[in-house]
Structures are given as C-alpha cells and as structure tokens.
Design brief:
Elements (H helix, E strand, L loop, with lengths): L1 H57 L1 E11 L3 E13 L2 E15 L5 E12 L5 E10 L3 E10 L6 E11 L2 E11 L4 E5 L7 E4 L2
Antiparallel strand pairs: 1-2, 2-3, 3-4, 4-5, 5-6, 6-7, 7-8, 8-9, 8-10
Length: 200
C-alpha cells in the first residue's frame, strides 16, 4: 500500500515537472516557429509588392512620344508626361496626362486629352480615361472614357458623355463618333431618351 502511494506521488510529481517544462520551455518555441513562419510569409508578400513597385520604377519614362496610324491612313501622335511598362505586359504602355493628335484628310486636327490612358504598341489602340476631352475644332466631346481602336474608323466614347457643337448639344451614356464623316450613334444604358438640344 505504501509502495503504491509512493509510486502515485512520484508519478504525479513527474507529470507536474513535465507540465512545467512543457509550459515554460517547449510551448514558447512552438509559438516562435509559428510566428517566424508567419513573418516569412508576410515578407514574401511584401517582397512581391516591392518587386511590382520596383518593376514600375525601373520602367518609368518621362516626356514620352509615340506615333501610329488611326483607321490605317491617318497619322497620330501620343504625348504623355509620364509612362511605365509592366514586365508581364510589355506591349501595353500606361500613361498619365495623355494627349493624342490625329491628322484628318480634310486638314482638321483632332485633339484628345485625358488624365491617364493605355497604349498598345503593337496594335496602336489607345484607351483614354478620366476627364477625357476630344475636339476637332468644330465640336467638343467630354467623357470619362474614350477608346481609339486603330483599325476602326469609329471612336467609342462612354460614361458621362457630353457633346457640344454649333448645331446643339447632347448628353448620353455612350457615343460612337466618326471624325471623318462627323456622324455619331448614341446609346443609353437604361434605355432612357437621350437629352439633345438643337440650336437653330
């Protein structure tokens, strides 16, 4: 009986010592490993973000100029204060404070400006965004987006479109405009009537 009590007491003491050692020595090292793994993962994600920023910085240009053809026979020039190219899409140039000049056959010059835009060096397609303004000297169009696809003869202008000319003005969601013929097609997203004001 006494032997059993002593054995039980020794077992309890051994368990107590094991718990103390585990609590103060083993458990902190487990948490430390978890913390270091978490820090490594966070460092990796930060490194990826830094690499993207570095990629952007390495490919940053100022006072950029590109030349191309619109509708296959009208030369245009794109100017930008700043531009950058990402390594995963080297053909696409991202620009700020963009200005496009298109020379028309009849001698007019179409000027398109915007806060930012993208230009595809292979296809010559331009996508202008934010505070967009296009004019040919006779008419002014403002919007938030304008797509100038080099192989098409129509410019797509959308989001808060306002067109003002000597004949009147209109407000629409989307306008397809042909600078050559000066014709345009208008559409509204919610099928409401287009707001048009004619001046006689």
């Amino acid at each position: 009986m006494k032997i059993n009590k002593k054995l039980l007491q020794l077992t309890l003491i051994f368990i107590g010592l094991f718990l103390i050692v585990a609590t103060y020595f083993y458990y902190p090292t487990i948490n430390k490993d978890k913390l270091s793994k978490s820090v490594i993962q966070n460092d990796k994600s930060l490194t990826v973000e830094k690499d993207k920023d570095k990629d952007k910085e390495d490919n940053m240009f100022e006072e950029v100029e590109y030349k191309g053809l619109y509708d296959l026979d009208k030369p245009f020039i794109i100017l930008s204060e700043k531009a950058f190219v990402l390594s995963e899409k080297p053909d696409m140039v991202h620009m700020t404070n963009i200005k496009i000049s298109i020379e028309m056959k009849d001698g007019r010059t179409v000027i398109i400006t915007g806060d930012k835009g993208k230009y595809n060096k292979n296809t010559y397609d331009c996508y202008v965004e934010s505070n967009v303004r296009a004019t040919d000297g006779e008419m002014v169009i403002t919007s938030e987006n304008l797509d100038l696809l080099a192989t098409k003869d129509i410019i797509t202008i959308y989001n808060e479109v306002k067109l003002i000319s000597k004949n009147g003005s209109l407000i629409a969601d989307k306008v397809y405009y042909d600078f050559e013929s000066k014709n345009y097609k208008i559409s509204m997203y919610d099928r409401e009537k287009v707001k048009i004001k004619f001046i006689e």
